[in-house]
Amino acid sequence: MSGAELGLVLSVFLACAVEAVEALTIVLAVGTTRSWPSALYGVGAATVALAAIVLALGPALTSLPIGVLRVVVGGLLLIFGLQWLRKAILRAAGLKAEHDELEIYAAQIEAARSAGKRPERFDAYSFTISFKGVLLEGLEVAFIVLTFGSNQHRVGLAAAAAGLAVLVVAVGGVLARAPLARVPENALKFAVGVMLSSFGMFWGAEGAGAHWPAGDGALLVIIPLLLGGSLAMVSVLRASVQRAPVAEAESAQAVKQAART
Amino acid sequence: MTRARAVFASAWGFVVGDDWRTAVGVVVALAVTAILADAGIAAWWVMPPTVIGLLAYSIRRASRGATRRG
């Protein structure tokens, strides 16, 4: 397996694991509170819809000329990856609330209980909530599978990595019988953001006609560079957050003194 | 028309997200890379500092907003 393929497998696996943990929380809540069969039908229907999206768009993307594909898909992957990285940096610095699976689970349970009486057979509420949860969380993964996979003409490998992540999370959920609250979601999102942005930058520039020194080996510099830059941003932000209350207190004191004089 | 607009809005939100400036910056950086490469000038160096700069700018804007709200 080449370095780029390893990057593909790792990025898709981590991204899919994060999204699967979030989807699992929703499915567990409606399944436990209302109807497991209807919730699982929802999961199945959403999985079929996501597979159809990948199967329909995958061949269309891979039929594009490689230069066009790399600049378009690299650019999209970079923009998308920077979104993940931006949120992960803000969360790591304490400027954005962390994703709390237990809190989300409790809210979903409450909503499912207050959604009215459960029908005897098919529960449309459980089906719809599961379907929407899996489809919306899965769309980001489908996007990553398509962009990563089509760029390397390995959509099948990317889909297999996504499937493996779903399997691991589903087994974890069945064994725990609870939301997977201990998964370090933000650290995973941080890693995925760095990988998507790095590969997006690499492919985008190549598609635009640039030649990286050392070819694929440039990724071994780009990834640590972006990771180091992002970690530096987290520590600068943390320091400024810690300084902020002191500065506010000092300015309030100055205002009081100015008012007295 | 309304449905097409809704589809475009959700696709825009999905890919571009909260900060359109980053997306514009990426497109401009890729265009500059293409122009330099087309002129036969080494262009690989354009993307790394631009991407880190765009990320830092986006984070700075978001953190200012968060501390003002906080």
Please outline the helices and strands.
The complex is a heterodimer of chains A (261) and B (70).
Chain A: H1 3-33, H2 36-62, H3 66-92, H4 101-113, H5 124-151, H6 155-176, H7 185-207, H8 219-260
Chain B: H1 2-15, H2 20-38, H3 47-69
Helix pairs in contact in B: 2-3
Please, could you describe this protein's structure?
The complex is a heterodimer of chains A (261) and B (70). Helices cover 82% and strands 0% of the residues of chain A. Chain A is mainly α and 261 residues long. Chain A has one domain. In chain A, helix 1 (3-33) runs parallel beside helix 4 (101-113) and helix 2 runs parallel beside helix 5. Chain B is mainly α. Classes of the chains: A mainly alpha (261), B mainly alpha (70). At the A-B interface, helix 3, helix 5, helix 7 and helix 8 of A face helix 2 and helix 3 of B.
Strand tally of chain B:
0
Number of helices of chain B: 3
Strand content of chain B: under 5%
Shape by Cα distribution of chain A: globular
Q: What is the subunit organization of this protein?
A: heterodimer
How many domains in all of chain A? 1
Mean pLDDT of chain B: 87
Count the E strands of chain A: 0
Largest sheet of chain A: none
Instruction: Provide the residue-averaged pLDDT of chain A.
Output: 85
Largest interface: A-B, 41 and 35 residues
Give the proportion of residues in helices of chain B. Answer: over 70%
Order of helices and strands of chain A: HHHHHHHH
Q: Share of helix among residues of chain A?
A: over 70%
Stretches with pLDDT under 50, minimum 5 residues of chain A: none
Strand content of chain A: under 5%
- Described by the principal axes of the CA atoms, the overall outline of chain B is flat
| Structural class designation of chain B | mainly alpha
